[in-house]
Fold:
Amino acid sequence: MASNQYAGIILMVAMFAVFYFLIIRPQKKREKKVNEMRNSLEEGNEIVTIGGIAGTVAHIKDDMVTIEVGADRTKLTVMKWAIGSVQTKNEETNK
Structure:
């Protein structure tokens, strides 16, 4: 009879552990990787925003990034959190 009481608790703990290792932990790793990428931005990096705008980093100030886009080098200012991916100069030369 006592084993029935503990079975429910053990099942709940096991479900939480599975939930943690399959959902929460990988999400935190992704967030950490994205934050490191955004914090390591340098002028001259080629970036793509989460909205799909591609450009070159011209200036970085706190949480704002100015990028140059297009042939006429139009300048846009975006928030750091809006940067989806970065392609460094080393990656460009490897292509």
About this structure: The chain has a mean pLDDT of 88. The radius of gyration is 22 Å. DSSP finds two helices and five strands in the chain. The first strand starts at residue 46 and ends at 49.
